[in-house]
Automatic annotation (TrEMBL):
The gene is bglH. The active site is at residue 364. It comes from the Bacteria. This is Aryl-phospho-beta-D-glucosidase BglH. One of its GO terms (molecular function) is 6-phospho-beta-glucosidase activity. Belongs to the glycosyl hydrolase 1 family.
Length: 470
C-alpha cells in the first residue's frame, strides 16, 4: 500500500514560552513556577529566580521572534505551536485586569505568524503557573484556580479570537502525577502530597479545561480546542497474565486524563481506584455537566515507550522514563536514556483513535542530543545532525502507517523546532531544533541562529507533503 499524508496536513514545530522567550521580568511579566526551577523538573524550587536558571534568558525569542518566525516560514511551516505565558497576561494570576503589554506581545507574535501564512496553535497553560498562585493558593489544589483560569482564558480568547483558531488547554496534563509543582503549581512537596489532594487538584484542572472548551465554542464556534497528554505506550514484559494486567493498570493512570477530556465523565476503573485508596473527589454543583464539554481533538506528545512487569525483581525503572515504567531491553536509548521506539507512535495513535474516534494532533516528538557546530571546507558553520533526521524520519513513517490504518491525523509539530532550554534538565546542550542557537549552559554565546542539516531535510518533507520519506 502506498503511504501518504492527507492534503492540508499541518506540518510545523512546537515550543513553550518558558523555554525560549526569556525576558522573564520585562513589560510587566510576573514570576512563574519556571522562574524558580533552575535545575529542571526533579529539583526543588528556589525562593527567587537565580542567575543559573537558563530559562530567564532562554534564547531571547521575546526580542528575536521575527527572525525566528522567518526561519520557520523558510522551512514551510503551516502551523507553529507555542504557549502564552500566563504571568505575562496576569502577573500574579489573581488580578482582575490583564497586563496590556503582555497581551500586545502575543498580538505581535501571532501577526508575524500570519504574515507568512502560519497558523498559531496555542497552549493556554504550559508548565508555568504564576508563582503567586502556587505559593498563595497551593496551585490547583485550591478550587479558586478554576476562576483564575477562566478569567485568563476569557481574556485571551476574546483578544485573539481573530488570530488563533487552534487551542490546547493544559500541556501534558497527566504529568501532574509525577511533577505536581511544575505541572500543577502545587507548592506542597510530592513526598508530602496526599493522593486525596492530588486527585482533587486534577479534578479542578478537568473542570477548568472543560470550561475552557465551553467558553471557546461560545466565543467562536469555528475554534478547535484539544487536550494535550503525555503519551507513553506500556507493553507487558511477557505474555504472563500478571504482566498484562500490570501494564493495563499502569496505562489506566495515563488514559484516565484523555478519557475524561474525550468522553466527559470519570471511567469506572478510576472509580475503583478511588474507592480502594480512600479518595473522595468533591464535585461542586454543575461540575458533572461542565465535564460533558468534550474536546474537539486529542493532542499528545510522544517520545518513548516502556514496559511493565509484576515481577518485582525486574522492575528496574528506565533512566529517562518520565512517568514510570521499566526500560525495554529491545530498544536503543537517547543520550538522556529515553527509549527510541518509532512503532510505539503508530501503536499509540491507533489506541487513541480506536478509543475516541476523534482527530489526533501529534504536537511533540523529537530527539534531544548534543549537537556540534563545526566549520566545513568552505568556512561555513554547519551542524550535521543525521541522527535527528533518522529519528524523525522513522517516526514520521510510522505516522503515515497509522494514517493508512485509518487514523485521522490533523498535523505534526516537531518538538523544539529551534534549540531551547530543556524542561527536564534545564540544559541547552540537550538540543532538539532544526535551528542551532549559539548559547551554552554557562550562559556564553552570541545567540546567533544557524540552520542545521535537518532544517533543509524538514523543508523537503513539508514541500513534498511527506513523500520524500518513502
Amino acid at each position: 500500500m502506498e503511504l501518504q499524508f492527507p492534503k492540508g496536513f499541518l506540518w510545523g514545530g512546537a515550543v513553550a514560552a518558558n523555554q525560549l522567550e526569556g525576558a522573564y521580568q520585562e513589560d510587566g511579566k510576573g514570576w512563574s513556577t519556571q522562574d524558580v526551577m533552575p535545575k529542571g523538573i526533579k529539583s526543588a524550587p528556589t525562593e527567587v529566580p537565580t542567575d543559573d536558571n537558563m530559562k530567564l534568558v532562554g534564547i531571547d525569542f521575546y526580542h528575536r521572534y521575527k527572525e525566528d518566525i522567518k526561519l520557520f516560514a523558510e522551512m514551510g511551516f503551516k502551523v507553529f505551536r507555542t504557549s502564552i505565558a500566563w504571568s505575562r497576561i496576569f502577573p500574579k494570576g489573581d488580578e482582575l485586569k490583564p497586563n496590556e503589554k503582555g497581551l500586545q506581545f502575543y498580538d505581535d507574535l501571532f501577526d508575524e505568524c500570519h504574515k507568512y501564512g502560519i497558523e498559531p496553535l496555542v497552549t493556554i497553560s504550559h508548565y508555568e503557573t504564576p508563582l503567586h498562585l502556587a505559593r498563595e493558593y497551593d496551585g490547583w489544589i485550591n478550587r479558586k484556580m478554576v476562576d483564575f483560569y477562566e478569567r485568563y482564558v476569557r481574556t485571551i480568547y476574546n483578544r485573539y479570537k481573530n488570530k488563533v483558531k487552534y487551542w490546547l488547554t493544559f500541556n501534558e496534563i497527566n504529568s501532574i502525577l509525577e511533577f505536581p509543582f511544575m505541572s500543577g503549581g502545587i507548592n506542597t512537596p510530592l513526598e508530602k502530597l496526599s493522593k486525596q489532594d492530588l486527585y482533587q487538584a486534577i479534578h479542578h484542572e478537568f473542570v477548568a479545561s472543560a470550561l475552557a472548551v465551553k467558553i471557546c465554542h461560545e466565543i467562536n464556534p469555528d475554534f478547535q480546542i484539544g487536550c494535550m497528554v503525555l503519551s507513553m505506550p506500556i507493553y507487558p514484559l511477557t505474555p504472563h497474565p500478571d504482566d498484562v494486567i500490570k501494564a493495563m493498570q499502569s496505562d489506566h493512570k495515563n488514559m484516565f486524563f484523555a478519557d475524561v477530556h474525550a468522553r466527559g465523565y470519570y471511567p469506572g476503573y478510576m472509580k475503583r481506584f478511588f474507592k480502594e485508596n480512600g479518595i473522595h473527589i468533591h464535585f461542586e454543583p454543575g461540575d458533572e455537566e461542565i465535564l460533558k464539554h468534550t474536546v474537539d481533538f486529542i493532542s499528545f506528545s510522544y517520545y518513548m515507550s516502556t514496559y511493565e512487569t509484576a515481577d518485582p525483581e525486574k522492575q528496574i525503572r528506565g533512566e529517562g522514563n518520565l512517568l514510570g515504567g521499566v526500560a525495554n531491553p529491545f530498544l536503543e536509548a537517547s543520550e538522556w536514556g529515553w527509549q527510541i521506539d518509532p512503532q510505539g507512535l503508530r501503536y499509540v495513535m491507533n489506541m487513541f483513535y480506536d478509543r475516541y474516534q476523534k482527530p489526533l494532533f501529534i504536537v511533540e516528538n523529537g530527539l534531544g542530543a548534543v549537537d556540534q557546530l563545526v566549520v566545513d571546507g568552505n568556512g561555513e558553520k554547519v551542524i550535521n545532525d543525521d541522527y535527528r533526521i533518522n529519528y524523525l524520519r522513522d517516526h514520521l513513517v510510522q505516522v503515515a502507517e497509522a494514517i493508512a490504518d485509518g487514523v485521522e491525523v490533523m498535523g505534526y509539530t516537531s518538538w523544539g523546532c529551534i534549540d531551547l532550554v530543556s524542561a527536564t534538565s534545564a540544559e541547552l546542550k540537550k538540543r532538539y531544533g532544526f535551528i542551532y542557537v549559539d548559547r551554552h549552559d554557562d550562559g556564553s554565546g552570541t545567540l546567533d541562529r544557524y540552520r542545521k542539516k535537518s532544517f533543509y531535510w524538514y523543508k523537503e518533507v513539508i514541500e513534498s507533503n511527506g513523500q520524500n520519506l518513502f
